[in-house]
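For the sake of clarity, the format in which proteins appear in this thesis is described at this point. The record quoted next illustrates the convention:

___
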Amino acid sequence: MQGLIIENISNLYKIKSGNNIYEAVARGKFKNDNITPVVGDNVEIDITDEENKKAVIEKILDRKIYVKRPKIANITQMVFVLSSKDPKPDILMLDKQLAFAEFLGVKSIIVLNKTDLDNKKQFEEIKKDYEKIGYKVIETQAKEGIGVDELKEKLKGNINVFSGNSGVGKSTLINAIFKDKITQEGEISKKNKKGKNTTTYIKLYEIDKNTYIADTPGFSTFDISEIKSKELCNFFKEFKKYIKDCEYIGCTHIKEENCGIKRALEDGKITESRYQNFCKIYEDLKEKEKRKW
């Protein structure tokens, strides 16, 4: 029988198979193979006690995606939540996260929350810039439930991970999505009230058929050092088509002359803020690579 791991606490797993949820342990052979089942894994299980819904994980099916920190498999979409004000939008963090999503090969949604607090409507500039690149941007006022239905529609059919700095309204947004799921809403609210990153385990909450939200710590400050500095340009998706116009193979797009990306910047095809953030992330990755040796 096959199922999806929806929760992992210590070495106990909850597996959703059809309409049933089984509590399972993993066979010892996984330790010998140096692989551990994680939330999001599709697995084969043997039922050991149907009445009490007990099982054993026999096999981990092929993973499409695996994130090391926090450990989760097969996510298909990342939702990046920014606050329009209080706190101000962290665009550097957003660009870092978008690059990581491109690296993983998963879809991205940008949510601009608290738009009602931004009297100068500066969020509109952010929305315009990122829609031009090709990202879906949704405006929300989570406390009032504005924009929540549009977001919920975009979550369908995906295993979704939410990411955002403390105070952007991420938990309020998730609670608004779960308004008709009292149990889950209560659980998430209770955990969120304890403060930053208090969740010690990862769980998938089903909000629709084949649609899940991962309640997970650590996605706001994840490390993107899996990306090599020289390959970073491939994960700024509006940069890719200009790389072929660079004079030098292996162009870093920072110091070189006759660079296709810098020319696109001068022509207004790439925004100044995206380019500057690319440079900062590149230098950060380069520095980390030096320290490895």
In short: Residues 47 and 55 are 4 Å apart (CA to CA). The longest helix spans residues 272-292.
